[in-house]
Amino acid sequence: MKQLLQLQVAAALDELHEIESALESLGEQADWDVGLIYQVQLVLEELAVNTVNYGFENDGGKTAGIIEIVISEDDDSIRIEYSDNGKPFNPFEDAPEPDLDSDLAERRVGGLGVHLVRTMMDEASYRRGESRNHVRLVKKRVAE
């Protein structure tokens, strides 16, 4: 497994462009398909925006939010390790199920970003450890 990227950014909306820029550079260097770059960017943006918007609410600004991303690859897959020091939250169990059937104007807010993560990645798991949320994602290069 070859590590391609290790990135640490502040959990603030005005810092999230760093993730997009790093992924764009990485994708070009690693010769990733444009669609793969887009999927990884979108998934990480969804996780990061949720971290910023909900991971530190109600703590009075006491916690300096930090997001860490490590991306590695082998011949078969890309592995993404995403972690933050926000409040405990398992997006795969705690996020609401999205309403995919109602008209757009009638849908309740929530859950769609996690739905995108689940559908765009081949594997997704969560654990809490070291006072951090850890999300592990795998995107296979070859469809099964």
Structure, described:
Helix 1 (17-29) runs antiparallel to helix 2 and helix 2 runs antiparallel to helix 4. The chain has helices at residues 17-29, 34-54, 91-94, 112-120; strands at 2-10, 66-73, 77-84, 123-129, 132-140. The mean pLDDT is 86. 33% of the residues lie in helices and 28% in strands. It has a five-stranded antiparallel β-sheet, with helices on one face. The protein starts with a strand and ends with a strand. It has 144 residues and is an alpha+beta fold.
* Continuous helix count: 4
The order of strands across the largest sheet is 1-2-3-5-4
Give the overall shape.
globular
Q: Count of DSSP E strands?
A: 5
Estimated helix fraction:
25-40%
* Mean of pLDDT: 86
Helix/strand order: EHHEEHHEE
**Roughly how many Å apart are the termini?**
20 Å
Biggest beta sheet summary: 5 strands, antiparallel
Radius of gyration (CA) equals: 15 Å
**What are the segments in which pLDDT stays under 50 over at least 5 consecutive residues?**
none
Structural class from helices and strands? alpha+beta
Provide the β-strand percentage band: 25-35%
Question: Which terms would index this structure?
Answer:
single chain, 144 residues, alpha+beta, 5-stranded antiparallel β-sheet, 4 helices, 33% helix, 28% strand
Helix-strand layout with pairing:
Blueprint lengths: L1 E9 L6 H13 L4 H21 L11 E8 L3 E8 L6 H4 L17 H9 L2 E7 L2 E9 L4
Helix pairs in contact: 1-2, 2-4
How do you describe this structure in short?
The chain has 144 residues and is of the alpha+beta class.
